[in-house]
Amino acid sequence: MRDGGRIEAAIEVLTDVETRRVPARLALKAWGERSRFAGSKDRAFVSGLVLDALRRRRSLAWRMGDDSPRAAVLATLAWDWRWSVDRVAEAAADETHGPGALTPDETARLNDPITLDAAPDAVRGDYPDWLDTHMARVFGGTRGEAGQALAERAPVDLRINTLKTEPERAMKALAPLGVEPVEGMVTAARIPAPDPATRTGAVETIPAFGKGWFEVQDLGSQIAAACAGEIAGKQVMDFCAGGGGKTLALAAAMGNTGQLWAHDSDARRMADLIPRGRRAGVRNLQVRSPVEAEPLKGLDGRMDVVFVDAPCTGSGTWRRHPDTKWRISPEQLERRMAEQDTVLDQAAPLVKTGGRLVYVTCSLFAEENEDRIAAFLARAPGFGRVDPPADYSRWRTPDGFLRLSPKTAGTDGFFVAVLERAG
Ligand SMILES: C[S@@+](CC[C@H](N)C(=O)[O-])C[C@H]1O[C@@H](n2cnc3c(N)ncnc32)[C@H](O)[C@@H]1O
């Protein structure tokens, strides 16, 4: 495809995302199915452009004085992809495929972009107005900057699986991917955010992945899992195991000692858990699926650690899923809060006396984090807060929890509370 056609396709997909309020992934898939002529480079270009436009949707509209998908896509090319305005103009004017020649106003705005200094925080931080109070509660006067960091492209983070290899050996195998070590975490590696228009080789295709040497996992998720503490030889329950990202990290920390239990209220989400565990060399995993009559039977009061990776709005992952920030609603936030209360109440009885309940979300909002913990502690006075591991103390909140964000930690946003059941 020529650039004009690719740009027109990105405008079409962005329009579809916004008018039908569907995930970008589905709109891109639908476009791909309609556009059999598009090759893998075209798909990478269109997908990268749509996602980048979604990342800064509001600030682009504000600076262009136009909230159309066309304006967002053209501005992304000029300001984010650093195309010259002449190049944008030439591609747009492509007679057969392009979205049409730039107007004089578009040309002027692209050539002379205004700053965001006078923009409201929600515009500077690229999130919907109704979330401003939620962002303000956590980030105060720096919420615009926190939002900007959530609008950056994310790196690809890897977790080296110590059940299968040594970090040094894995780093050698990963060298062709351009990985960088992560300070303070020898089992983590990072591939800097790729160029948006190119489809980078999927890390899953290299032989070391097939051998189970590493997993793709955001560094924040790895740190959250590490907050389970010293768990070798213990009884550990991953209560919301889902696809098993945290389960496998917990398994590596246990080194096939003790017993790791995995549970989720949705059996379908755990479908890949057994094969993933096998590939990763996990031998101490027991899956307790909700298809069983009483999946948690016999486990009350037996766990040293119950890890609750709770359902949440995912506001910490906007870098990776920028469409979700425009779809999230107050009703959805309320629903997630109710689910978080339920999940805490269901998980707590499994914790043994002196054991720990580790509550994690990938959301930044206090309503899903501190407020849920405060409400839980009021309902369950046998539990009390303890400090998360000292290694991560630089991200401790004044209340003694952990909050990671792209701005403070260079990771996705995560919240961790470590609670202990009194003796
Ligand atoms: C954030 S996701 C888990 C992601 C997973 N731990 C990982 O690292 O890949 C939250 C999970 O909680 C599950 N869930 C929601 N309500 C639940 C409940 N009451 N009990 C157990 N799991 C629940 C959802 O099905 C979903 O899989």
Automatic annotation (TrEMBL):
GO biological process, one term: methylation
Pfam families: Methyltr_RsmB-F (PF01189)
InterPro entries assigned: MeTrfase_RsmB-F_NOP2_cat (IPR049560), MeTrfase_RsmB-F_NOP2_dom (IPR001678), RCMT (IPR023267), SAM-dependent_MTases_sf (IPR029063)
Active site positions, chain numbering: 362 (nucleophile)
GO molecular function, one term: methyltransferase activity
Domain SAM-dependent MTase RsmB/NOP-type: 146-422
Protein keywords: Methyltransferase, RNA-binding, S-adenosyl-L-methionine, Transferase
UniProt entry tagged with the keyword Membrane: no
Binding-site list for S-adenosyl-L-methionine: 264, 309
Family according to the record: Belongs to the class I-like SAM-binding methyltransferase superfamily. RsmB/NOP family.
Name of protein: RsmB/NOP family class I SAM-dependent RNA methyltransferase
